Amino acid sequence: MSAKQSPRWTYDATLQEPIPNVPELILFGFDEIRSALPLPYHKHDGYEFVLVERGKASWELDGQVFETKAGDVFLTCPGELHRGGFNVIEPSRFWWFIVTPPHAANWFRLPFSERECFHSALKTLPRVQHIGLRAVQGFRKLGEAINSNSPLRSAAIRQAALGLLLAIVQPNERMISLADDLAEQFNLLLRRIEDNPEWRPGIEELAGYVRVSPSHFFRTFQSYTGLPPMVYIERMRIRKACSLLAESSAAITDIAGVLGYASSQHFATVFKRIIGMTPMQWRMYQHNGP
């Protein structure tokens, strides 16, 4: 990925100098994707955790697509083939890290009983769970520790990595709740947006759907999803377009009409701005590869 497309920083134990006394950390990184990029099937030797900081991303594993929004973590286990939904990663900002399974006797210097607790917890974690954006600070802390020249660098890395793992396997309920009285209404609204990509509501209609003021709705929606309402709706509309282009032979003009665009030209302009290629180019890529 070029710097223009995606500001990125990674630590990769297979390519860089290993961190002394922390063999458990395989990979750590940050990505900000400004236009959709291909992400084909791949797998890792450890547990991978991806936290979405901003935007929305989808992932495909075993034929099932998992949606993630800001504050969500997506989990894959060692050896599991997965890819971006429809083979791409949408515009978003996210963090990730990969750790070895807790099998080694000195895994993160933990005693046997605690290693077993982690082992049990990791096997039962859901694919997607909402842990909130406070966890971003944990990722930043881990990145700072990796870049540190301190003689206690390895200890700081272990502490930061364990802090993230604890936040994932034992999430703090106060951290993850949006607002208990609004969460269900927002989830219903998001499902309606996803199921009706041609819907073009205004802020007042959206706010009325969840029974809050427009100004409160705007702030809360952006906090919950990582995107302003209209940007989120447009992204979901283009996600539906990706599905229709990949899974049907419908004409692009017909797809534009189904999604409520006034013209195929307008549809193509919006699609290219978000995905980085025209609808026809994207369809050809899905069928033939790069």
TrEMBL record:
Keywords of this entry: DNA-binding, Transcription, Transcription regulation
PANTHER family assigned: HTH-TYPE TRANSCRIPTIONAL ACTIVATOR RHAS-RELATED
Family annotation (SMART domains): HTH_ARAC
Pfam families: AraC_binding, HTH_18
Keyword Transcription: yes
Domain HTH araC/xylS-type residues, every copy: 187-285
Record-linked InterPro entries: AraC-bd (IPR003313), AraC_XylS_family_regulators (IPR050204), Homeodomain-like_sf (IPR009057), HTH-like (IPR037923), HTH_AraC (IPR018060), RmlC-like_jellyroll (IPR014710), Tscrpt_reg_AraC-type_HTH (IPR020449)
Name of the protein described by the UniProt record: AraC-like DNA-binding protein
